[in-house]
Amino acid sequence: MRRATSMLKLAPPWLVRFSSVSASSLVDEFTKFCYQRDLPRAMKAMEAMQRNRLWADAITYSELIKCCLVRGGIEQGRLVHEHVFSNGYEPKTFLINTLLNMYVKFGLLDEAQKLFDEMPDRNVVSWTTMISAYSNSSLNHMALEFLILMLREGVRPNMFTYSSVLRDCNGLLNLRQLHASLMKVGLESDVFVRSALIDTYSKFGEQQDALNVFNEMVTGDLVVWNSIIGGLAQNSDGDEALHLYKRMKRAGFAADQSTLTSVLRACTGLALLELGRQVHVHVLKFDQDLILNNALLDMYCKCGSLEDANLVFTRTMADKDVISWSTMIAGLAQNGFSTDALKLFESMKLRGPKPNYITVLGVLFACSHAGLVNDGWYYFQSMKELFGIDPGREHYGCIIDLLGRAGKLDEAVKLIHEMKHEPDAVTWRILLGACRVHKNVDLAIYAAKEILKLDPTDAGTYILLSNIYANTQKWEDVAEVRRSMRARGVKKEPGCSWIEVSKQVHAFILGDNSHPRIEDIKREISRVIQRLVSVGYVPDTNFVLQDLEGEQMEDSLQYHSEKLAIVFGLMSLPKEKTIRIRKNLRICGDCHLFAKLVAQLENRVIVIRDPIRYHHFQEGVCSCGDYW
DNA sequence: TTAGGGTTAG
């Protein structure tokens, strides 16, 4: 009796309680605690059940495992695992799947794999859980391998499996095969599968396929719309992305953070500042969303409105990550505000996140832009030591630009040959830009030939090369270049400039007279040129190394697309409004001079974004420092 | 019990 009493004293209170209840009420108590999400009591009850060789039903355990995931930890999860396999109890596949999912959610792939290997019967859920786990861990080859093994075992994939595995495709062929096989079993109408298909086709740059999948949709949801809008925006088809955004709204869907991020990206690509500002109003609903705010910040930077970007960065954004800082630093540098970019980088080092690969690119770009050769070299040579980042091809590109800008062309070539990475077309184009500024024809020919070896479709480089040969009267070489262009089907892209006026985008294309006010614009250009000539403007017809990408000598200099757009801006926008233009080709020397003088004479601010650089013209100077 | 969409450079 004394012994029994002492045992009771030693035993924890819950054991005393359960020792007095029947087996079925023990399980009932456990079930109750599981559904009440009372994890500590459920765990104690489970221990008592184990002592008494009692088990509950699989759904109750699955509730307990959910509770471990939300409120507990892996230790409790492992105890559940141990219990459901104890004393010869054989858990159903459903329950093992739940445990499998638990290990995956805790990030314990090895343990999940071990359990999966030991499973007597694996069903589609078991396989899909593993496929999804590998897919989320970026082990795409494993996910695909599992799909093959699953098919070999005769387990048929369902919509869950396909929507997981689609993003693991290692090639377009693979994607088309999966697309065909899911169509055979009629799974293409599932919204998850459809959005995964759209997303994956977009990632491979197959926009038409993505659009086909989208257009076959009868009923879809917001994510499907977001997939197609996002895919188009990421593949530089901003116009189509914005068109579908309007359709989405007409179809009755309200934009969420993901939609607005993609819409902002489309505005960024098209330099549509006014539309971007309208989108900003909707962004205010999601003011804590970091990704969306970063996209907003980038939109203002790339649309050339650094005032707005600064306001977003300093006032709106409570949380900032390395992307926010990098965006702002690169934005300042690209728009010609190098000193501000470097100051911001200093404050990032003091109170911001750790800089990454892209942050350093922005910093080097700022140094190059401001001609800070020593600072650029310092950051380049110490980036590994200071920030733990190995210089990549792009960092070398900035330094080649830095040397080129400073006129150190020989050193730039030496660096290209010394760098660890194989130079690509971009590397050689940077050198070519320096040759243009410093009028080094021989080196320009060398760089142009290197570009064409790597990118035989680059129309601008063919034309540049042909112009150089024409200028030095090497007619056979001119003919050879033209032959190569024809043979490869390379065509000169006409110069095009876009300007946003009263919520409408006006496009001006060289040689195209379809704009309703084209005659007025041409008359106004003549008047403006007359005024400019009176203050000393002489049209610059030296195109040989001026015009990199194509608005040609034989075309009328006077009607280059950016001149049409600038003058249309003067005619249509109030005096205090900045004239903002986006171009598809690099700005030519004459248009650059024209813009500087117009800005001065008409007391206007003009911002032109070409494919590579930004030009802020104000009071007769350009933020690019005449280097582009 | 298993699934899909958004941000910095080039």
Overview of this structure, please?
PPR repeats lie at residues 57-91, 92-122, 123-157, 221-255, 321-355, 392-422. This is Pentatricopeptide repeat-containing protein At2g03880, mitochondrial. Residues 536-628 form the DYW domain. With 628 residues, this protein is mainly alpha-helical. Among the domains are: 13-119, Serine Threonine Protein Phosphatase 5, Tetratricopeptide repeat; 320-391, no CATH class; 406-492, Alpha Horseshoe (Serine Threonine Protein Phosphatase 5, Tetratricopeptide repeat); 496-622, no CATH class. The protein has helices at 2-10, 13-19, 23-35, 39-51, 58-71, 74-84, 93-105, 109-118, 124-136, 140-152, 159-165, 172-184, 191-203, 207-215, 222-234, 238-250, 257-270, 273-283, 290-302, 306-316, 322-334, 338-351, 357-369, 373-387, 393-405, 409-418, 425-438, 441-454, 459-471, 475-487, 518-534, 561-572, 589-601, and strands spanning 496-501, 504-509, 579-583, 606-609, 614-618, 621-622. Helix 8 (109-118) runs antiparallel to helix 9 (124-136), helix 19 (290-302) packs parallel to helix 21 and helix 20 (306-316) runs antiparallel to helix 21. The radius of gyration is 32 Å and the shape is elongated. The structure holds one DNA strand of 10 nucleotides.
